[in-house]
Amino acid sequence: MYWERLTSHELNALDKATPLFLSIAAVEQHGPHLATGTDSIIGAHLLERLEAERPDGVVILPQVKVGCSEHHMSLGGTLTVSHPTFIAYVTELASAALRHGFTNLVILNSHGGNVAVGGVIAEMLAIENPDCRIVFTTWWRVAAEALKGIVEGGKGAVGHACEFETSLMMSAAPGEVRGGKIPPRGGAANFAWADGDMLVGSPATLVRTMSAQTGGTGVKGEPSLASAGKGVAIADAVVAQLVVMADDLASKSDD
């Protein structure tokens, strides 16, 4: 169920334990081969798949497309808002939904630059709504173990406009992939203690612009290994975990 497609009477009649899902994303450069809306397209696609699996069991809130992407600005084609603005908007949007009596909210993130600020948002919402369960996750983390069996390029192959994001776009929105412009592996040298990717975390984070992280290419990873079939497998793995999460939350039990 999509919030904006229901009437107020239909929303009022829902079981308030029905989990709400909110996609937070980004509109930013994704190299020479992917549309700037890649993160928002992926986030919307995953929740569309979830809604198809649980059409009466989840409510999808309107997506927050533009996120915190200041670190991409020097590469062009990027929209961004400040952290305080993003925090205020997302918390107020989510709070408005929760004020109608809903008790479960999952914030699904699809942009690396939203990870830290998304965690802050979830903490703030949990403090303000102590009777609600607030969950924050990012799509490549919620299914990390399954995704490790899908990646072919090894460590560093999945980062930005990479093997995974390109594959998801090939399956979800093939018209937004410039197939003839898919570049070779991208990235830049880093300290060993700050070297990680979507699936392999680093001991510490060295904060750098995306230009610095990618040697100016805007691509971090191995997009040449992408395929539509891989995109389907990635989405299957993520949605399977989101279904488990939705069912657990709807059970009304904290056990």
From TrEMBL:
<dbReference type="GO" id="GO:0009231">
    <property type="term" value="P:riboflavin biosynthetic process"/>
</dbReference>
<dbReference type="InterPro" id="IPR003785">
    <property type="entry name" value="Creatininase/forma_Hydrolase"/>
</dbReference>
<protein>
    <submittedName>
        <fullName>Creatininase</fullName>
    </submittedName>
</protein>
<keyword id="KW-0378">Hydrolase</keyword>
<dbReference type="InterPro" id="IPR024087">
    <property type="entry name" value="Creatininase-like_sf"/>
</dbReference>
<dbReference type="GO" id="GO:0046872">
    <property type="term" value="F:metal ion binding"/>
</dbReference>
<keyword id="KW-0862">Zinc</keyword>
<comment type="similarity">
    <text>Belongs to the creatininase superfamily.</text>
</comment>
<dbReference type="Pfam" id="PF02633">
    <property type="entry name" value="Creatininase"/>
</dbReference>
<keyword id="KW-0479">Metal-binding</keyword>
<dbReference type="GO" id="GO:0016811">
    <property type="term" value="F:hydrolase activity, acting on carbon-nitrogen (but not peptide) bonds, in linear amides"/>
</dbReference>
